[in-house]
Amino acid sequence: MKTEIRLSNESPYKIWAEYYLKCLWKVVRFIYHVIGLLVGLIFGKLLTLWNRLYEIVYENKKYLTKVVLKILALVEAVILVIFLVQYFYNQAYISSLINWMVWLGIGTAGMFFLLWGYHELFGRQSILEGYVLLTDQYVCYKLASIIKIFGPPRVGKDTTGISITSILVRFFTFQTKRIMAYIRRICYIFDFDKVETVAYLYRRHFYQPSRNKRREAFIKLAEMPRYKCFLKERYLKDIKYQELLNEYKTSLNNKVDFKSKYMFDDGISKMHFLDLLNEYFFLWVRVYVVKNFVAINQPYVEDPKTGLMAKENSVYFMALASKKDEPRTEIQPDGSKKTIIYKEKVEFPLLDWTIWYDTEDDTWMPNRDTLVQNMIDEYKLRDFKAFYGHFFKHFHIIQICHDSQRMNKKLRELDACYINILNREEIPGAVKRNAILSFLQKITDYFASRGELKEEERREDFYSSSQRKYNFYGRLYQSTMKEKYLLKMESIKKKRVQQPGAITEVFKKLNKVLLEKIKQNSNQYGIIRITATISDQPVATNLQETTLKKLLDRNKPMFHESFKVDFYFRMTDSMGRYNDRYMESIAEARAVESCLDFYHVLNWDKRMQIMRDTIVRMGYPAGQNFMKVDKEELFEARYVPIINNQNNNKGEQRI
């Protein structure tokens, strides 16, 4: 109700002046940012080009030095001819010779000091940074997933191994986030804000090691009415979430010829949108909840910025079998005796995207140690090392030792092979066709991303501008007490954010189709090149370069010979035709029974020292001998009653 009593003495002219000045400042700041962006982009491109040119000059400095010296010699010869001509005509060659030689010397010395100064101030660092980037690329894309680093003491084995581990951690972080962004592009029908909120609330379901349990938890969450398969509101009219979920369950039992418009087909394999979303849940929890990528048997700071320590690894984590149940007679509270059967705990908390780091391998797992040999046989540690590639994706094993021959033979023999794959390179097909499609895809991706950004900005601007206008008219109402401002405040409350346009949705769908087609072309017409050594001996000695044609023309078998050869395969002849993780059920059996998740594996203590309880957990016989850990202490740490063990498997950790 209007009243003549003002609630504020603030001048409305001052309010309007502040409003226009803020608008003007926003325009000036926008122009400043645009100019800064353009200058930075142009300068950055020129700097990159110059650094590349300087790197080429530096790498070929010996050759270029010879060329420059030859040019100088040629110039001196020309000058000498000119001086001889001048001598015969005007006898003025001496003063002219001195001037030419002085200026030539000054120019040469000046050029030398200019290059030397640039190299010392700028060039050396830019070249070193280029070498670092090359090392990162080699470790991330070329280095084998299982490596052994060995050499004499204090030569830099751990320095090398830890550096490789740090590079891989950064690469894993980058790759997982990149895959999540790729899934967001493909599965445009899902509300990923809701997905990430639910992933955090139910995170314990997705850091457990069992893939089946993770999938079951995902399906239960997706079928909840309040989540409705995490579909966006705009798609709920056309997509019935129960039918989508039933379709996903059917696709799990038919990975060959199941068809649906909600399948992503890369030309080799097909994945349902909900299967990709399930993977997104796991990756999000892997990156933002579990955080650790490294399991290591020595203290290691995985993230210096946050002080995050790496996980402690243990021999028991590699075990694919357990010791036999052990009966024990115990005295009950009433004085009677009762035999209780104890079962060894199953600890199999490992996940995809993990770096397994073992140092001092020849100390912890020596070749001539009966206890180590028995442990390898009882726990099937050799089988884990042989089959780990079937169990996990992106699982790297880094081993450090002084002498690789001193490590236990059963584990060491898996580090050598008769056919040694040196390099695997995928050569994508349909390059010209995909170049055109990629150009179109970038356009659609630009407009789809721009549309999403505009939707988000429109939503944010709507709420922020509405709040600013509401406060603005509120101040005016308080200072003038005019009803028109009160009515404007009421109208602001009734406004609703504008719904996204149909054009953006068209670009999203077209972008998904182009991404799928590019992947199909790349795989269907692509070739895999395998570089390998072929030998009838574990060690490829006297290696000879050869070709497949020469091997086919041989009439005699190989006898103590080794050959290096390139193989070329169609991608469709191998990829998608077999399950390279068909033996994962062996690890799955351990994962289902595991009473320990990777999330709950203890991080290394920040004291960075090996303590007694650490030795007990890690399970190395040599360490137990050092610390004089007795059998009773090991029994208490490793065994639980069968009844309690079953209950523990159903506890909150293993839901």
Question: Quick one: overall form?
Answer: globular
The whole-angstrom Rg is 35 Å
Strand composition percent: 5-15%
Strand order of the largest sheet: 1-11-10-4-7
Helix content: 55-70%
**Extended strand count:** 16
> Average pLDDT value?
81
Query: How many angstroms separate the termini?
Result: 59 Å
- Characterize the quaternary organization of these chains: single chain
Structural class: alpha/beta
The low-confidence parts are 644-655
Q: Number of helix segments?
A: 21
Largest sheet: 5 strands, parallel
Describe the protein in words.
This protein is α/β, with parallel strands linked by helices. It is 56% helix and 12% strand. The protein is built from 21 helices and 16 strands. The chain has helices at residues 12-59, 61-90, 93-141, 157-186, 192-201, 211-222, 241-252, 273-290, 361-364, 370-379, 381-391, 409-412, 431-480, 483-494, 502-524, 548-553, 584-593, 612-618, 621-627, 631-638, 642-649, and strands spanning 146-150, 263-265, 270-272, 294-296, 301-303, 308-309, 311-312, 326-331, 337-344, 354-358, 395-401, 419-427, 527-535, 543-545, 562-570, 639-641. Strands 1-11-10-4-7 form a 5-stranded parallel β-sheet. Strand 5 and strand 6 form a beta hairpin. Helix 4 crosses helix 8 (273-290) and helix 13 runs antiparallel to helix 14 (483-494).
